[in-house]
């Protein structure tokens, strides 16, 4: 007996509706701190994000400062800070990258005032106790050493050096010996110099009244010390150098069973007229599961599990990165298919169904990204770092909805042509050099 094949037809995508932005308020305090408060009453919680510009900071000292910022103040230990946060169902964490120091946390909306008080305590009276610094220093060294043993990190580091050269963005993780040399006095000096309100942005999101939340923030953080005369000019990261395509760089990892393929292509900032078209072009190429490149080297040929491409935005410049990890024996074929798909997207306009599928994915991702309080707080903080506000979200959504196939084709031809790529491959050079050299000129990284 033959069982009839069941075919399910997916319903057509509905029309794109106008994005509704939440209610917000903004004020810049006399000490230079900008406070943005956004009402999102879905749950009785509040999200807190504090972004402090941190460009050009010494990488090891910046990393250690972020590790130990919450380790104690003049009046409270790290345990006491954590216990106080727990009383309002909250928590705080700190992190740093080449652009900013970020303090992030959340808690019950009724505890927002207490969270801000504890945040203010840390900002104005962090002590960096020697014992805590020693513990976190050892932990950070272990983390760096583990990262340096991972091929993904080694490949990324090699690519960053090719992209940025001597620019501060080239070194995004300090060396272990640099961290071992850090002492508490250096962290206190860095804190005094750089943890300042001028140019910083505090974002508050939750079941709040925006104007009242700003008043609360001013009462608690208005006394945070005023910074220098011109911190933005003094610490601004210089523009990134233009990408300089050249020979494919092979980074030798003897006896490796996998090769890590990494590429960088030019991209534009969020405010550029080409940004929406480039975002769609990237999605069609390799930016989501249904993209051409993923279908090719994952679904069709089985060369890799998770190839992906993405536009990365930093304050001083943007780039489009391409990443895949493949078995050593298919390194050449995987690179061939990658170059083929880049050439195809750069030379042929997308089909209408491809364009529409990528458009709906991009629009849906935007909406999902701000569907939660945490997502909304994260996006608002990211935008603030580029001088943007949430109205840019609506503007970008409208551009995505209106972008045409011709505009996508033009953006792909301008930014995704394989001749514009900077390429690094980490793997067993004795096995991958010959197949790669058959495709493109190569050079071997110096040890």
Automatic annotation (TrEMBL):
Ranges of residues in domain Peptidase M16 C-terminal: 183-360
Residue span, Peptidase M16 N-terminal domain: 63-176
Name of the protein: Zn-dependent peptidase
């Amino acid at each position: 007996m033959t069982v009839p094949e069941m075919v399910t037809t997916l319903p057509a995508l509905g029309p794109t509706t106008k994005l509704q932005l939440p209610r917000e308020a903004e004020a810049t305090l006399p000490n230079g701190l900008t406070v943005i408060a956004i009402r999102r009453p879905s749950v009785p919680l509040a999200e807190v994000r504090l972004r402090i510009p941190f460009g050009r900071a010494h990488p090891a000292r910046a990393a250690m400062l972020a590790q130990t910022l919450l380790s104690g103040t003049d009046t409270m230990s790290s345990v006491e800070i954590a216990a106080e946060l727990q009383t309002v169902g909250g928590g705080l964490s700190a992190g740093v990258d080449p652009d900013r120091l970020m303090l992030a946390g959340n808690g019950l909306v009724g505890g927002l005032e207490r969270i801000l008080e504890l945040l203010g305590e840390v900002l104005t009276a962090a002590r960096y106790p020697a014992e805590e610094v020693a513990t976190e220093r050892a932990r950070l060294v272990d983390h760096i050493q583990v990262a340096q043993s991972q091929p993904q990190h080694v490949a990324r580091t090699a690519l960053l050096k090719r992209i940025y050269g001597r620019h501060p963005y080239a070194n995004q993780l300090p060396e272990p010996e640099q961290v071992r040399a850090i002492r508490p006095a250096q962290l206190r000096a860095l804190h005094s110099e750089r943890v300042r309100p001028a140019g910083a942005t505090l974002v508050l999101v939750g079941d709040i009244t925006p104007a009242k939340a700003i008043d609360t923030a001013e009462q608690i953080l208005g006394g945070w010390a005023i910074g220098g005369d011109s911190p933005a000019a003094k610490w601004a990261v210089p523009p990134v150098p233009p990408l300089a395509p050249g020979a494919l760089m092979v980074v030798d990892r003897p006896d490796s069973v996998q090769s890590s393929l990494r590429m960088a292509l030019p991209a534009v900032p969020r405010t550029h007229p080409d940004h929406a078209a480039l975002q769609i072009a990237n999605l069609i190429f390799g930016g989501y599961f249904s993209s051409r490149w993923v279908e090719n080297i994952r679904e069709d040929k089985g060369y890799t599990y998770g190839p992906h491409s993405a536009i990365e935005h930093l304050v001083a410049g943007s780039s489009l990165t391409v990443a895949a990890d493949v078995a050593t024996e298919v390194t050449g074929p995987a690179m061939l298919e990658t170059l083929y798909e880049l050439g195809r997207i750069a030379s042929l306009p997308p089909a209408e169904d491809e364009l529409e599928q990528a458009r709906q994915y991009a629009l849906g991702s935007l909406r999902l990204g701000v569907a939660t309080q945490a997502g909304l707080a994260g996006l608002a903080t990211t935008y603030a770092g580029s001088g943007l506000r949430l109205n840019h979200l609506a503007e970008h959504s409208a551009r995505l909805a209106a972008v045409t196939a011709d505009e996508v084709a033009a953006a792909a031809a301008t930014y995704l042509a394989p001749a514009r790529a900077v390429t690094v491959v980490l793997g067993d050079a004795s096995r991958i050099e010959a197949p790669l050299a058959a495709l493109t000129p190569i050079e071997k990284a110096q040890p």
